[in-house]
Amino acid sequence: MGDTGALAIGGALGTIAILLKTEFLLLIAGAVFAAETLSVLIQTTTYKVRKRRYEKNTADAHKVFRMAPLHHHFEKTRLGRAAGVMRFYILGVLSAMIALATLKVR
Going by C-beta distance under 8 Å and a sequence separation of 6 or more, which residues neighbour residue 75? Predict the structure, then answer.
């Protein structure tokens, strides 16, 4: 799809969520994407703080995740790519079902 298409779909979903006043449900439905974003924020913030406070070698040795986006972290473990993708699919479907179950229809 590429960045342009993904940004357009994300913008459309965000706009629809704002119009329907269901912003929190969008966060629940996109829990996997939110976790991916938070993992990058946590990794970069802690790395910069440790690099500033200590030195680069210490910051490199004490990372929170093995690799910044969460799916790459799980690829680096013994889990492997196929099992990681399947688990992210399952989590995505579960979070979407939870969001639909909590949706109020007027």
Answer: 67, 81, 84
Give tens-digit pLDDT for 3-46: 788 889 889 989 998 998 888 898 899 898 888 889 999 998 98
* Cβ-contact 28, 99 below 8 angstroms: yes
pTM of the predicted model, to two decimals? 0.75
For residue 47, how many other CB atoms are within 10 A of its CB?
Answer: 17
The SS3 of residue 16 is helix
State pLDDT tens for residues 62-93. 888 888 788 888 888 887 888 888 888 999 99
Nearest to 97 by CA among 2, 25, 24, 42: 25
* Cα–Cα distance for residue pair 42/34, rounded to 1 Å: 12
Structure tokens at 68: 């910044």
C-alpha span between 74 and 36 (Å, rounded) = 12
